[in-house]
Each structure stands twice: as C-alpha cells, then as structure tokens.
Write a structure and sequence with these properties.
Strand 2 and strand 3 form a beta hairpin. It is built from 15 helices and four strands. It has two domains: about 55 residues, no CATH class; about 220 residues, Hypothetical protein af1432, CATH 1.10.3210.10. Strands 1-4 form a two-stranded antiparallel ribbon. It is about 55% helix and about 5% strand. The chain is globular. With about 300 residues, the chain is mostly helical. The structure holds fe (ii) ion (2 copies). The site of one fe (ii) ion has 5 residues, from loops.
Length: about 300
C-alpha cells in the first residue's frame, strides 16, 4: 500500500506522463492508464475507478507534471477572465509548491508569477477583483493570493521595474510558507491563541526563512523579507525585535497586516472595512512609527 499514493479525483485529467493505477478487490494495484496517455473522459466515465493512485517512484514526475498542467490551466482561465477559477488554480499551485518546497514545482513558482503578470500586470480592476474573490474554505491560500495581488497593484502604481515587481510578488505569495510546518490547529483556528500557541505561531517567520534559504531557489532578499515580515520599524515586532528592515519586508509587512485586518475574520475580532483598516494602520504609522510613511501613503493611493 505504501508504494502507491492516492491522487485527487479532480486532478486525474492532469496526468499524462505517469501511469495511473486502481486498487482491485483483492487489494492488488492494477494499471488503469499507461504512461504517455491522458484519460479520455467521454469513453471511460462509466468504468473509471472510484480512487486512483500513482506509484511512489513516479511522484517527482507527477508533481512536476501537475504544476505544469496547473500553469497551462491558469493561462487559459486568465484569458477567459474567469476570476474564481484563476484564484482556485492559484490556490492549488501555491499549496502544492509550499507543501513540497524541495521539489521542482517550488522552483517553478516564478513561471506562475509570470503567467499572472502577463494576464494582469496592467489591469488594476482585475487585480483588485483577484484580491477580493474569496477562497473561503482555504484561508491560508486566500491570504497568500490576496497579498500577492495587492503587492502587484502597489508595484504597478509605483512603476517598479518588472524584475523587482516579480520578485516582490513571489515573496508575498510564499511569505507565510513557515506556517506549513506548524500545527494546523494553531494556523487555522478561529479563536484567540493562548500565549504558548502564539509563541509557536511566531516561529513561522524564521521557519519560512530557513526553508526558502535551504531551497537555494531564489534571491537572498526573498528569504530575508520572509524572516522580517512581522518586524516593525519601532522594534516591536518579531522574531528578533529589530528596527532596521529591508524595503521588501516593510512593504510585505504592511500589506500583510492590511489583508489580515480586512479579510481574516476571527471569533474574537470582526474584519474591518478598507477605510477603517487604513485609519487604524495610519495611527500605527504616525503615532507609533511601526510602518514606513511613504509606503503607507502609496498603498492608500493605489488601494483607493
Ligand atoms: Fe506571517
Ligand atoms: Fe501573512
């Protein structure tokens, strides 16, 4: 049994390069689709097994193929301006990549960013819609994609170079990758965390930094921004309480807070409207010096 891995039914049509198997009544795994072929749904719908598997030796090839197929599908949905589908596929892509940071799909995330850029770069209303279309059942992916869309809006508004914009979009998309190593009860709970839980939660910034650094896939500014995205300019943040932060960390930290306050509803805290949120953060910018004033002003303009 351990030699075979169950795959999601909704994704079986993506697999071409790897053979698929089903489990016979006697417990043996039997070839269902040979390698090099796709499932023909019109012919085989009635005979399709309820559960389909790949062999564990094919896992690397399967993950890469899945990611490439996701990207192709993403491209098609972007062209058709099908926003809920775009967001759903992006959620699948990010989830697969973040779950397997040492596999090829993680290193192919820039290709996904390129596809989104190609479809959305100069289309502010579409980017705003992308940030608003909710993946209610997947809050972590929703947060990653919303913050990426807002970062792209900011980069367009400030006319940052394409290279910087893509790097920032990628960094934002994976800024919370460290949460994949935490107890999911802490990450997705709706209640207020206890002190020990919050202490564990705070480790996600350093864990994320270590994961991304170890992959050696991206520029060092990416892992640095991940490490610093909860630090604040007044030294009140975590994990190190430092006040000298990279530009990337200052931008992502601000967008992260904005998205959290406007979208992530908790039992102990209602979400705020964009206006209320910007007013709340304005207070933290002016009175407490937590965020960069210039970045805040530009963000207000591009979100309005
Ligand atoms: Fe975070
Ligand atoms: Fe975050």
């Amino acid at each position: 049994m351990d030699d075979f891995i169950l795959i999601k039914e909704s994704q079986i049509h993506y697999y071409q390069a790897v053979p698929l198997y089903y489990k016979a009544d006697n417990g043996d795994f039997v070839l269902y689709k040979p390698k090099g072929q796709r499932i023909n749904f019109s012919q085989e719908a009635r005979t399709r097994p309820a559960q389909t598997y790949i062999h564990k030796d094919d896992n690397q090839v399967a993950i890469t193929e899945l990611q490439k197929s996701f990207n192709t599908h993403l491209h098609q949905c972007l062209r058709a301006k099908d926003l809920p589908k775009v967001k759903s596929i992006l959620g699948d892509i990010v989830k697969e990549a973040m779950t397997h940071p040492f596999d090829p799909p993680f290193k192919e995330l820039p290709e996904t960013i390129d596809i989104v850029f190609e479809g959305y770069q100069n289309n502010t209303p579409l980017l705003k819609n992308l940030a608003e279309t909710s993946l209610k059942n997947r809050p972590t992916m929703d947060h990653a994609i919303n913050t990426m869309a807002m970062t792209m809006l900011y980069c367009n508004h400030c006319k940052l170079s394409t290279e910087d914009s893509r790097r920032l979009a990628l960094t934002t998309l994976i800024h919370d990758i460290g949460k994949t190593r935490l107890d999911s009860n802490i990450v997705i709970t709706n209640r207020k965390l206890t002190n020990p839980e919050f202490t564990e939660y705070k480790t996600h910034a350093a864990i994320g930094h270590d994961i991304v650094k170890e992959t050696k896939a991206f520029d060092p500014s990416v892992s640095r921004a991940i490490l610093e995205h909860h630090e604040r300019l007044d030294g009140s943040g975590y994990p190190r309480g430092i006040a000298h932060l990279s530009f990337e960390a200052q931008l992502i930290g601000l967008i992260d807070s904005y998205e959290y306050l406007t979208h992530q509803e908790k039992a102990h805290r209602k979400t705020k409207t964009p206006f209320e949120t910007l007013n709340f953060i304005k207070n933290e910018v002016i009175c407490e010096g937590k965020y960069n004033k210039t970045i805040f002003k530009e963000l207000c303009t591009c979100l309005s």
